[in-house]
Write a structure and sequence with these properties.
The structure holds three protein chains of three kinds. By secondary structure, chain A is an alpha/beta fold. In chain A, about 35% of the residues lie in helices and about 20% in strands. Chain A folds into two domains: about 250 residues, Response regulator (Rossmann fold, 3-Layer(aba) Sandwich), CATH 3.40.50.2300; about 150 residues, Rossmann fold. In chain A, helix 2 packs parallel to helix 11, helix 5 packs across helix 6 and helix 11 packs across helix 12. Chain A is globular, with a radius of gyration of 22 Å. Chain A starts with 8 loop residues before the first helix and ends in a 23-residue tail after the last helix. Chain B is mainly alpha-helical. A two-stranded antiparallel sheet of chain B has the order 1-2. Chain B has a two-stranded antiparallel sheet with strand order 3-4. Chain C has a domain of about 270 residues: Orthogonal Bundle (ABC transporter involved in vitamin B12 uptake, BtuC). In chain C, about 65% of the residues lie in helices and about 5% in strands. Chain C has 18 helices and six strands. The two termini of chain C are about 30 Å apart. The chains are: A alpha/beta, B mainly alpha, C mainly alpha. Chains A and B meet through helix 2, strand 8, helix 7, helix 8 and helix 9 of A and helix 1, strand 4, helix 13 and helix 14 of B. Chain C: Keywords: Cell membrane, Membrane, Transmembrane, Transmembrane helix. Chain C: It is found in: Cell membrane.
Chain lengths: ~450, ~350, ~400
């Protein structure tokens, strides 16, 4: 019995063995001549796009999928090439990856770690995917990242904002372009201090799961450093839809700022409750009461409608950015689909390009070679300015956008305006930062699988 | 003390939503003996009646505004609303603003029709089948309804605001002798509470004081005998299904401004509404309503910061703890009848 | 054979045959062909088929025989999984202790919950089990994060240092059976076909065959008859001096152990566990699997589990691109129309198909998929085939 942990159908599909006909059974050694899982054949390479297609985050997933399709089109030389022309690395020339045509398979994570891993495993075992990317929650990202580490393929995380993905749960085969809770806190706190003053008392409502905890921790730490005081923090169940009983006590708690560490439907509903209870018009401690939403996304802002106006938060990217890369991306996405891309679409598009670029620069699909090419890679022209893929924890470091809900939107997409672009130096942290799992957190060894 | 008053209000508000759904569910249990896993989906359909009505009322045509540009640099197309074309700026805006209350008018016939179609087309064939089969078929239906909504409206919640006039707040504290701004409560939530009360009262009055209701109650108690008396109980049961669907639907419409409708809400409410019904006791309409309010108020109290900080996680499980306690103390829930769904 | 009568032996042999040759049977289409999308013969899905099969078989011992509808069975799957992963993390990477540990913990948890929930019957019982499972889920998701890993769940890490035989080179430990890793596969290449024989799958398959055998024995034993008596008339049982609750509790614990076994195997095959495994939808899925296949029949629950997992994993992966490939032979306009139409049922709309299948099966096949198989064999039937399905269906749902 050979020792192959995952199969490599990719080779078989196109390799010469496939035509051998009914000869004697061939006993394959998966590590025969390539040395890594799912080594692609000579004509095509398969990428696995694993996004939520059912459940509450299905819209984000659909947008991610659109971006992936666009990226594949551009890599294969179709369309207008999007960010390929603005990307600082010029090795991608529209002939696929290393001369192989890019094919893809899709799957449904259902925003459940079990389903996400089943879907990723089927991509690796059945379809011969060499890289898995996607996801729109940190639980799923951590689970799939661990799987990819075990299987020996590269994982390019999609929308995942929890510190843990590249903090205590970081893995050598996993990479994240999206920003994280720490960066949100570091970028948001100075802006909040400038806007609302340093004499503030904050009340946190936090979604009762991993991402909520890391976000609350990050915001608390960085706002307290600005002189704010945290009055109280209350955990709310993820499945909560009516937040009235959590919002009602806020007004008379002595706090004058409400921080909603909520995402998706939670955020839409808690913000709606907060507005209904009149928090936005209220006065406390002689100041106007304010609400802060640490992590914004345009799709959410749309769900919350009027309520987001003037509320501060942070975001990874926004389509209204005027740099060359963003504009190129918005142009190709908008032309193809008729509306501007979301930040989820942006990060997944960029991740796909970064992967393709790393493979090309490494001259190999072997995960360890790709990882090496990505580590400490500096690039520009992808919409976030100068960016560093730090080798210590596989986290991208780039400017962070502080945004607020726009007062007078001009269209249904024009919901957020960029208030400040926080320079990357301000959101840098030590890889062994306590919020990131401390000194114990390690990437481990990179795994080529097979 | 002021906090307790607010939480009682919250509890009554949540409770009225629970009670309305549980009421419809019990009507279907009690009269038809059917376990309807699609009841949460009916609630969702109601909420989407509000979304659709507001979409229809704010349907628009595009007019190109040469002075502005869209995100791709093309001339911006501005939406012009038909209602404003037809009724003038102010009246048109008012009509769009009142979309949610207007949606009630749309939802009643729609939900009754949906209920009729469901009962005649599907549920009718399952009266004599085991409960397990009823669960499977209605669960399948719930999935299908949810997916249809997702196909057209996506998965993200859709903001459906209440009319501006009802969007304000009532300062309760002043009436009770507190200072201003101590006990304030959103007006729409009060509207919801009183509206639910009215619906619940009319359902009870209908069953209590009309001949139709009397026959239905008799049918709930002993279907066979009523049938033997030559009364066409089936037709009445069909109507009851329509009524239950309409109650769920109206509950959904009115709830839309409180929690933005999303296609997942049917499944979110499914489990909770069953817990409420069972805690109330199978086959008991007053039990369902009582359990709705009891659980709503208890949930609200358990979410108070003082309580959560004292017992972390209590807000996550309180409904279930209370449900278990009640069912262990009272074998058939608060007011359940003997022998209903006990085997 | 082994205490089974002739009919049961035949059924047992059929199941053993199906399970052993699953890598062939589930991969009927050649690699690279358009139909290869429908192949299910890869390790992950085959493992899921048998694991969920075990879960459904166990559930059926409770529900099919006694009629007690537990709506919280996923809780036992969940605690079994947590037990197994802690065993892998702390004790040894060998899967056997992990699985045993999972069975014990699953059974114990079932005993505690069963003891309380069985004070009530009918829907009151269902809601009690549901409430316990939802509590377990909510706690695992939030308050118990140190023990369960919260939302991100638990995986084996390179910092884990099991008592016996962990990796010494700082790599991430893998679940194994005396050194042979669960992921080990052996591939057979015949013409355009590739068949994968995976060690993990065969271990899980062995467990399922044992579980299936045990379930036949229970169905045919005096104990099984007692359980049926619980369903048909508890009063009469009481009058004859028997205590139905005790028998039901046994059945509940046994089915909890089956769920624990399934949880342990899930962790052994794929070393991770997350709390959503205990969410009520997971419990609901077990109920649906059993009814869909045919509650109270021996083979039905396995069929139900298989068909739901098949739809989940195969239908959801069919995207527009794949559809375009399928319908490429049609003229352009027609191709697009077909793609748009077919897209309603696959990819991100796979739930829609699931719902429709539930409705169609329950409307037209009141006995579940088993009845479908029966009707098919009655129509085309060879005598022998009818025999096996008859046995399977000899104890209809209610």
């Amino acid at each position: 019995m050979s020792k192959s942990n995952f199969t490599r159908r990719g080779v078989l599909k196109t390799g010469a063995v496939a035509g051998a006909g009914l000869t004697l059974p061939t006993y394959l050694r998966a590590d025969g001549h390539t040395g890594f899982t799912n080594a692609p054949g000579d004509s095509e390479v398969v990428l696995g796009f694993n996004v939520p297609q059912t459940g509450p985050y299905a819209d984000e997933g659909a947008d991610e999928l659109r971006a992936y399709e666009l990226a594949v089109e551009h890599l294969n030389g179709g369309g207008d090439g999007g960010m390929l022309s603005t990307f600082s690395s010029k090795v991608l020339d529209g002939t696929g990856i290393l001369g192989r045509e890019v094919k893809y398979v899709t799957g449904d994570t259902q925003t459940k770690s079990d389903a996400a891993r089943a879907s990723a495993r089927s991509m690796i075992e059945k379809d011969g995917a060499i890289m898995i990317t996607g996801g729109s929650s940190s639980g799923v990202a951590v689970a799939v990242q661990a799987l990819c580490q075990e299987a020996g393929v590269i994982f390019m995380a999609g929308l995942t904002h929890s510190n843990d993905t590249t903090g205590k749960d970081r893995k050598a085969n996993g990479f994240r372009h999206f920003f994280n809770s720490y960066m949100t806190g570091a970028a948001l706190a100075p802006v909040l201090a400038a806007q609302y003053g340093t004499d503030r008392k904050a009340y946190h409502l936090t979604a009762d799961y991993n991402w909520g905890y890391t976000t609350e921790e990050a915001i608390k730490a960085s706002t307290e450093a600005m002189g704010w005081e945290t009055v109280n923090s209350v955990k709310t169940p993820l499945t909560q839809t009516d937040f009235s009983s959590y919002i009602a006590p806020v007004l008379n708690s002595g706090a004058d700022v409400l921080v909603l560490n909520h995402y998706g439907g939670n955020m839409i509903n808690s913000l709606t409750s907060a507005v209904q209870f009149g928090l936005r018009e209220a006065q406390a401690n002689g100041q106007n009461f304010e609400i802060v939403v640490p992590l914004y996304s345009r799709l959410m802002a749309r769900g919350a409608g009027e309520n987001v106006k003037g509320i501060f938060g942070s975001t990874n990217w926004h389509w209204s950015l005027q740099d060359e890369g963003s504009q190129a991306f918005v142009r190709s996405f908008g032309t193809k689909y008729g509306f501007p891309p979301s930040q989820a679409a942006h990060t997944t598009y960029v991740q796909t390009l970064l992967y393709a670029d790393a493979v090309t620069r490494a001259g190999s699909f072997a995960p360890c070679a790709v990882a090496e090419a990505l580590e400490d890679f500096e690039f520009d022209g992808m919409g976030n300015g100068k960016t560093l893929y730090r080798g210590d924890d596989h986290q991208c470091f780039k400017d962070v956008l502080v945004v607020k809900g726009k007062e007078n939107p001009e269209s249904e997409f024009d919901l957020l305006e960029v208030v400040e672009v926080t320079p990357v130096d301000q959101v840098m942290y030590d890889p062994a930062h306590p919020q990131m799992g401390g000194a114990e957190a390690t990437l481990g060894e990179c795994n080529n699988g097979a | 003390m002021d906090q307790i008053i607010v939480q009682i209000l919250n509890g009554l508000d949540k409770g009225s939503a629970y009670a309305l759904i549980a009421l419809g569910l019990t009507l279907i249990f009690g009269t038809l003996g059917v376990v309807n896993f699609a009841h949460g989906a009916l609630f969702m359909m109601g909420a989407f009646c509000a979304v659709v009505t507001s979409k229809i009322l704010s349907s628009s045509h595009k007019v190109v505004d040469e002075t502005r540009t869209d995100f791709l640099g093309n001339p911006l197309e501005v939406d012009v609303f038909y209602v404003q074309d037809w009724f003038g700026q102010a009246a048109g805006a008012a009509i769009m603003d009142w979309a949610v209350p207007l949606a009630i008018l749309v939802s009643i016939p729609f939900m009754i029709l949906l209920g009729f179609v469901m009962e005649r087309g599907l549920i009718k064939h399952f009266y004599k089948r085991p409960h397990a089969d009823q669960i499977l078929v209605t669960f399948g239906l719930a999935i299908v309804l949810g997916e249809v909504i997702k196909y057209y409206f996506g998965a993200n919640p859709i903001q459906t605001p209440a009319p501006d006039a009802l969007n304000g707040r009532v300062d309760f504290g002043v009436w009770l002798g507190y200072g201003p701004n101590v006990v304030v409560y959103p007006m729409w939530r009060l509207v919801y509470f009183f509206f639910s009360g009215a619906i619940i009262a009319s359902v009870f009055a209908f069953l209590q004081f009309t001949t139709f209701g009397m026959v239905v109650r008799a049918g709930m108690a002993d279907r066979e005998t009523v049938g033997l008396l030559g009364i066409d109980i089936d037709k009445r049961f069909t109507f009851m299904f329509g009524l239950a669907a309409a109650v769920a639907g109206i509950a959904g419409v009115m709830y839309a401004p409180i929690v933005s409708p999303a296609y997942t809400m049917g499944m979110d409410w499914l489990v909770l509404s069953f817990v409420v019904v069972v805690v109330g006791g199978m086959g008991s309409l007053p039990g369902a309503v009582l359990a709705g309010f009891v659980l709503g108020i208890i949930e609200s109290f358990a979410s108070m910061p003082a309580v959560v900080n004292l017992l972390p996680g209590i807000n996550q499980i309180v409904i279930y703890v209370v449900a278990i306690a009640i069912l262990l103390i009272r074998p058939r829930g608060l007011m359940g009848r003997k022998g209903v769904m006990e085997d | 054979m082994l205490g089974l009568d002739k009919k049961d032996s035949t059924l047992m042999l059929v199941v053993i045959g199906l399970v052993i040759f699953a890598p062939f049977l589930l991969n009927p289409f050649p690699e690279g062909s358009a139909m290869a999308q429908f192949n299910a013969g890869y390790p992950d899905l085959m493992q899921r088929f048998v694991i969920f099969g075990i879960l459904a078989i166990g559930f059926n011992i409770l529900f099919g025989l006694t009629g007690y509808l537990s709506f919280g069975h996923a809780a036992f799957l969940g605690v079994g999984s947590y037990a197994a992963i802690w065993s892998l993390k702390l004790f040894t990477l060998n899967v056997i202790p992990a699985i045993l540990f999972a069975i014990i913990v699953g059974g114990f948890f079932a005993w505690v919950i069963g003891k309380i929930s069985l004070k009530r019957s009918g829907i009151y019982f269902s809601i009690l089990t549901l409430a316990f499972a939802q509590m377990s889920f909510a706690m695992a998701y939030s308050v118990l994060t140190p023990l369960t890993g919260g939302e991100t769940g638990l995986q084996i890490k390179n910092t884990d240092n099991p008592l016996i035989g962990g990796p010494t080179d700082g790599s991430i430990g893998r679940a194994n059976l005396f050194g042979a890793e669960m992921g080990n596969s052996f591939e057979l290449n015949l013409g355009n076909w590739v068949f994968t024989f995976n060690l993990g799958y065969y271990i899980a398959a062995l467990a399922m065959i044992a579980a299936f055998y045990l379930s036949i024995r229970i169905f045919r034993s005096p104990f099984g008859i007692m359980l049926r008596a619980v369903k048909s008339n508890q009063n009469r049982m009481n009058y004859t001096g028997l205590t139905p609750k005790v028998y039901t509790l046994y059945a509940f614990v046994i089915s909890g152990m089956y769920a624990g076994l399934a949880g342990g195997l899930m962790v052994a095959m794929d070393t991770q566990v997350g709390p959503e495994r205990m969410f009520w939808t997971a419990s609901g899925e077990i109920v649906i699997m059993t009814i869909l296949g045919g509650a109270g029949t021996l083979i039905g629950p396995v069929l139900g589990a298989g068909s739901i997992k098949y739809m989940e994993n195969i239908l959801s992966k069919i995207n527009k691109d794949v559809l375009h490939q399928w319908f490429a032979f049609l003229p352009d306009g027609l191709e697009d129309a077909m793609v748009v139409f077919a897209d309603i049922f696959v990819g991100k709309q796979w739930h829609f198909t699931l719902g429709i299948v539930f409705m169609l099966v329950v409307i037209f096949l009141p006995g579940g998929l088993v009845e479908g198989a029966q009707r098919l064999s009655a129509r085309f039937g060879r005598k022998k085939k009818t025999d096996t399905t008859d046995t399977a269906a000899s104890t209809p749902a209610e």
